[in-house]
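Notes, Module 5: Reading structure tokens.

Key idea: the token line is not a picture. It is a compressed description, and you learn to read it the same way you learned to read a sequence, by spotting repeated patterns. We will look at two proteins. The first is printed below with its tokens.
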Amino acid sequence: MNGADTAWILVATALVLFMTLPGLALFYGGLVRARNVLSVFMQCFSIACVMSILWLVAGYSIAFGEGNAFWGGLDKAFLNGVTADSLSGTIPEVLFFAFQMTFAIITPALIVGAYVERISYAFIMVFSSLWMLICYAPVAHWIWGGGLLAGAEWSLFEDGVNDFAGGIVVHQTAGIAALILAVFLGPRRKATTPPHNPGMVMIGAAMLWVGWFGFNGGSQLAANGGAAMAITVTHISAAMASITWAAWERVRFGKASLVGMVTGTIAGLASITPASGSVGPMEAMLIGGIAGIMCQELCGVVKNLLKIDDTLDVFAVHGVGGIFGIIMLAVFGHASWTAQLGGLLVVGIWTAVVTAGLVVLVRMILPIRVSEEDEITGLDLASHGERAYELTS
């Protein structure tokens, strides 16, 4: 065990949890109507709790057990055989478990942005649980656990997919799942309402930015120059994407918005995620600069051309950003074109099939959408019996 590596990953684990709670919750919560903000908080918080337990029960074993090319098996279910003295590289294995648990939390939580303001709470809990175990955990095994796409002896691609911190594992899977769920749900009754609290959106985005240092820097799993470079390029990409998103808004609409600028921040962070272990500052600046414009344009394509109400642009920002970062690794010569594109194709098909199948299955048991009356009332009161703002008290 290396004490410095262990100390850094302890901090990184806390930072990644901080991304979901409270960062993502505030970011998404500020974007919805005032009558739905508590429902978003509840969805993010509940997912964090349930995914943590499921990661202990089976998720970690499926993702990082020895198993075979397709899954890790159940030998490490409930952390069987893992003690405080067990090591994963130079850090305690239980710390590696906890660090990866925070990734298993934020990935289904990202999908929340696609279905806010109209989905059944019970459906979310059952769907997210099954999706993490059947979609996310196997994909994590394929790329990070020595499985199907990792370049091991049974890998589909000799070089293996280069996905440092989750362009495919986190962002592509969440983005595609979000798009499919939005299609099944259909649009909101009133889809043009502006964010109820842009200040809350900015605060949430700022927390995500800080937490992302743990997300990318921690993925080095060591306290060294690689972690320092990952943090640096993460910051540069986020800053550049924020600038280009705001500038492009200014060109298109005559004004740059706060919500737009901080959404650009997230686009830059998602895009640099898979590349943060390989690229330098200049490459990061290019990735972020392109992402700020490209992801903004894709938001319009999804909503206006495809007519899909992906409410908070999960696919356009996270899905497209993660896919873009994976491709840019090949563009810059840090990865094989065959492995990168092949990995995107394999995981994309798997995610689409599993997500659609789970939606069909779960909605046979539970309603996927709340009633029209509940949607008008707002999910805070209809689903949870609370209001975020008691203006007369």
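Here is the second protein, with the sequence above and the tokens below, as before.
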Amino acid sequence: MFEVTAEDAFDFRSTEYAELFASSAATAFQHPIWLAQLYDRLVRQGAATPLIIVVRMRASGKLAMVLPLVRRRYTLLKVVEFADMRVSDYVSPVADEETFSRILADSRTVAAIRKHLRPYDLLRIGKLADRALAMERLLGVDKRDSMGMSAYSSKLEPTFAGWREHRLDQSYRKELDKKSRQLNRMGEARFECVDGPAAIRTTFDALKLYRGKRFDGSNGPADLLQLPSYFDFYMAVANEGCGGFARTYAFWMNGRAIAGALGLEHRGSLLVILGGFDEAGYRKQSIGSLMFEQIARDCIERGDHHLDFTIGDEPYKRIFGGRPSPMWQIYRAGSPLGYAAHLTVEKLPAAKALARHVLEAAHVKKAKPSPVIVPPAPDEAAESS
């Protein structure tokens, strides 16, 4: 019934992929713009090789499913991963539920997909949402394992006032009103969804500055936006998706960006994936919280139904009405070396940190990874926001 190929130069901007994505159960992180920019700017320029599994209907040639994967090598260790490159917060096969079930029921198709994955020492995929398609069944994994963290989404009400009343604590609403008055007394404060390359660039330059100071690597993962390839990737997504898929927000004070955020629109939800603010100048005014409040207002005015803060257990997500949903990961060893590497990453936190450091160094130098045989765990990759 199906034909399986590996098409590593697959065109994610093609009409056939746009149609497949529109009818699929995939997430914003498999959107045509996102994956086209990711493969062009992060996969092909980084320490990874495309592995794009394409399933078509044998009779008609119609696209049935796409699996956007990559191959990575950590010295002796050959690893197959989903193409998230530390920026995608949810992963999913790109297919509708009915077609995916038919593929799972076709043993020859499943065998062909698994054959294209080899050789590997370790197959490892994280960031599976609670309701994601059962990729573990497709890849021959017994069960999902918990990532030990959740994603958070806040339900939006028909009106901004209603959302504040139902999702924000009364005392916090009063606190935000107080902070807003303070901010407006400091000068000309203005919030907007920015439009145009110049304003987007100004916002991203500010984000890079603020995030570089806050996430300097001394207390956790360093900020990916400081790496030229990642900065260019986010900027490219913001520009290509402007007016539709991507929204860039900015809070201005007297014409200067003091806070900013990038969000992805998908089926009535806005996924906030990147944010930053002038902590030194406006922390007392809770500028980050005021920005999220205004983002919620903008989403409600556009008719969105959810504000999705994506993966990570930061406390502010609950403050803004976010409800947790568990995240999952799967792995399959293809060799004794792969099994040993998986156990090392799971049991030794130092191995996670070392693997992450090697990846960051590889992107800065645009060279092959240093001699480390353990891949980073999926939870170390949840750094986009």
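Summary for the second protein:
- The radius of gyration is 21 Å.
- The chain has 14 helices and twelve strands.
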